Amino acid sequence: MLLNTMTASLLQQSIAYVRTRITTRPALALVLGSGLGALADDFASAVSIPYTDIPGMERSSVQGHAGRLVAGTLEGIDVIAMQGRLHPYEGHALEAVVLGVRLMLSLGAATLLVTNAAGGLDPALPAGSLMLIEDHINLSGRNCLVGGNDDALGPRFPDMSRAYDQALSALCLEVAGELGINLTSGVYAGVLGPSYETPAEVRMLRQLGAHAVGMSTVQEVIAARHMGARVLGLSCITNPAAGLSAEPLRHDDVERRAKASAAQLSQLVRGVVARVGSLPA
Ligand code: HPA
Question: With a threshold of 0.85, does the pTM exceed it?
Answer without folding.
Answer: yes
